[in-house]
């Protein structure tokens, strides 16, 4: 729900001279996030301006309007998200005898009442929800920013300008910052390296100098007297994952407990005063959510799927089977390559940082389809990272087990020797034994990739390689150094986690919020659709991390415990098949319908003039891709998404 933005400035200085007009411009830049209403609050004496764009979901009356002041008048808030347990929180507030005279039934008012009574951090500790919050304390003159525990909602912030003319900006998207006259966007070259490596700007990095992202489960406090943000985690996902486990329950108890938890989470997230539905791919995660929704609903749930005419990418047939079994009101839309490619010019505007997960395209299109019918859609996001869904967990653990007995220097030597053989030569040698399917990685390139895995000194280094589309991205970015990373330099505690669980933990902290949840937030908010993810209820995360690994992966099957809950609502026969996911044939497109577009963005003279990427390296990759000696589809897509973004925002 919604978008938030605002800023602090030093009273009496130029940036605040026309604060209301500047705030209005910032709000207009993210107006797509909240088309139903907007509001602003400006205190020129204190030097603060708060803006809110509303997508009305709960309490559609003016009583739910933001910015909202607390009953004590001490706190002023703008917030984006939902507090799903706000009704039970109200009951607890009333039990204290300190409840205000309620003006409406919005979760915003509940949140403020809790803060008045218990304080911000104790109130947040009692919430179940997704949120990005900006809270102004009128007494202490401090601004506190808060992000939800698992990172569903984004929040950017940072200082711009010098001395007493500086301003502290915050917002749901960077688009809002562009509308402020003090914002001077300077590209942070170091952030470009992980973007090319992983396809997104990770952790608290931002593509612009001087700005940061709040991390999941983090708070930041700033004031004009203490301008350096004081940051801390009120919920630490890494520590939750590494916590000592208690006695393991028996299978039946674990299944029943997860079923109860998910029923409660799904039931809470079906709270809405506007039409609600769900994304349904036919896979385990979305099917269990829809199965629970239909179990809890007296009427058919509205479900949505995207289909592809190419059978190897098409999950819509499986989604329809699940929808038919559950009796949902199902809507599907089949797309061809042209439909998908037509979205590409819109991507830099939707994702206002360079973002290159190609499943962003069908994600946007299914969100657009759903928005024609509903305002809220539940999803299965989070199931892979919490329940051991990705093949790389099993493959990585198996590979690490095989590598550990071989000394690292010996592995590194052998891998280097293999990588010294040109990939085209390896392609010719291997072709009689292993044909390369169209659009896939050629054999020589595949062997080079496996050699890169063998060079890993430990599991964490192997995982970092597994989640890297481009392992030596540093070589391509001019004048930059690779920044510290949670995947390499400030690793979370491991505790007793096995290899598969360690990779899950790292993905939960990095890949999930920075790629998956960023992708979904921007795609849905671009069409003013709220997406909710019941599997990311923090109680579910804490429960599953407290169980032994056999509840996540057993007998060669991922998501063992989640499957057992699903089978209560959907027959196993409708679900048991290889994982597919949203996949777009980027490599083939770049040799076909996107070739002219790509060649224009990758032209050597253009790269030379821009000065960010090494033209020689990029041109070599492009030639190898077109010649089909390599499939550089995804690394090139990462470059192209930066280039397209640069063209849009330069």
Q: Round the mean pLDDT to the nearest integer and report it.
A: 93
Give a count of the beta strands, DSSP E runs of length 2 or more: 19
General shape: globular
* Termini separation: 30 Å
Q: From the alpha carbons, calculate the radius of gyration and give it in angstroms.
A: 25 Å
Structural class: alpha+beta
How helical, in percent, are the residues?
40-55%
Reading side by side through the largest sheet, how are the strands ordered? 2-3-1-9-8-10
Main beta sheet: strand number and arrangement? 6 strands, antiparallel
Describe this structure in words.
The chain is α+β, with helices and mostly antiparallel strands and 650 residues long. The chain is built from 28 helices and 19 strands. The strands form four sheets. A six-stranded antiparallel sheet has the order 2-3-1-9-8-10. Strands 4-5-6-7-11-12 form a six-stranded antiparallel sheet, covered by helices on one side. A hairpin with a 4-residue loop joins β2 and β3. The two termini are 30 Å apart.
Describe this structure in a few short sentences.
The protein is of the alpha+beta class.
Features:
650 residues; 6-stranded antiparallel beta sheet; alpha+beta; single chain
């Amino acid at each position: 729900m919604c978008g938030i933005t605002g800023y602090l400035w030093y009273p009496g200085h130029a940036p605040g001279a026309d604060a209301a007009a500047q705030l209005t411009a910032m709000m207009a830049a993210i107006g797509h996030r909240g088309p139903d209403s907007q509001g602003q609050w400006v205190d020129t004496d204190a030097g603060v301006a708060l803006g809110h764009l509303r997508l009305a979901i709960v309490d559609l009356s003016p009583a739910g309007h933001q910015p909202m002041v607390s009953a004590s008048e001490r706190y002023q808030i703008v917030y984006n998200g939902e507090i799903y347990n706000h009704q039970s929180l109200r009951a607890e507030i009333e039990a204290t005898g300190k409840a205000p005279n309620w003006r409406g039934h919005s979760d915003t008012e509940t949140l403020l009442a809790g803060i008045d009574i218990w304080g911000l951090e104790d109130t947040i500790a009692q919430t179940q929800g997704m949120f990005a919050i900006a809270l102004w304390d009128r007494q202490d003159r401090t601004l506190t920013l808060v992000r939800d525990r698992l990172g569903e909602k984004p929040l950017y912030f940072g200082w711009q300008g010098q001395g007493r003319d500086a301003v502290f900006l915050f917002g749901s998207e960077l688009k809002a910052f562009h509308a402020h006259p003090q914002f001077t966007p300077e590209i942070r070259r170091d952030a470009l390296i992980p973007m090319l490596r992983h396809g997104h700007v990770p952790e608290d990095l931002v593509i612009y100098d001087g700005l940061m992202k709040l991390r999941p489960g983090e708070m930041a406090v700033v004031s004009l007297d203490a301008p350096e943000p004081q940051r801390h985690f009120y919920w630490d996902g890494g520590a939750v994952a590494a916590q000592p486990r208690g006695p393991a329950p028996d299978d039946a108890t674990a299944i029943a407990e997860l079923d109860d938890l998910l029923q409660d989470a799904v039931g809470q997230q079906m709270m809405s005063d506007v039409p609600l539905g769900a994304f349904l791919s036919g896979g385990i995660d979305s099917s269990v959510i829809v199965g629970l929704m239909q179990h809890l609903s007296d009427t058919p749930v509205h479900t949505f799927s995207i289909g592809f005419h190419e059978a190897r990418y098409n999950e819509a047939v499986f989604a329809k089977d699940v929808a038919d079994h559950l009796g949902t009101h199902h809507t599907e839309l089949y797309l061809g390559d042209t439909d998908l490619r037509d979205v590409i010019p819109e991507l830099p505007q939707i994702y206002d940082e360079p973002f290159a997960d190609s499943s962003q395209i069908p994600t946007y299109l299914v969100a657009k389809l759903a928005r024609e019918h509903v305002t809220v859609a539940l999803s299965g996001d989070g199931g892979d990272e919490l329940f051991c869904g990705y093949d790389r967990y099993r493959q990585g653990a198996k590979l690490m087990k095989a590598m550990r007995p071989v000394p690292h220097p010996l592995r590194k030597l052998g891998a280097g020797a293999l990588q010294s053989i040109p990939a085209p030569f390896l392609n010719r040698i291997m072709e009689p034994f292993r044909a390369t399917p169209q659009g896939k990685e050629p054999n020589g390139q595949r062997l080079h990739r496996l050699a890169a895995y063998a060079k890993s000194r430990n599991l964490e280094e192997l995982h970092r390689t597994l989640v890297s589309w481009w392992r030596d991205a540093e070589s391509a970015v001019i004048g930059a150094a690779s920044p510290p990373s949670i995947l390499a330099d400030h690793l979370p505690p491991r505790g007793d986690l096995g290899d598969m669980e360690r990779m899950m933990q790292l993905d939960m902290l990095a890949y999930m919020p920075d790629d998956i949840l960023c992708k979904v937030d921007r795609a849905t908010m671009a069409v003013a659709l709220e997406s909710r993810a019941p599997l990311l209820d923090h109680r579910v995360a804490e429960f599953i991390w407290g169980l032994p690994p056999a509840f996540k992966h057993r007998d060669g099957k991922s998501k063992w415990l989640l499957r057992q809950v699903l089978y209560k609502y959907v027959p196993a026969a409708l679900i048991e098949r290889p994982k597919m996911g949203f996949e777009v044939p980027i490599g083939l497109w770049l040799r076909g319908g996107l070739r002219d577009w790509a060649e224009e963005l990758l032209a050597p003279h253009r790269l030379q003039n821009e000065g960010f990427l090494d033209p020689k390296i990029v041109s070599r990759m492009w030639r190898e891709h077109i010649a089909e000696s390599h499939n550089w589809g995804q690394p090139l897509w990462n470059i192209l998404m930066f280039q397209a973004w640069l063209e849009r925002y330069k």
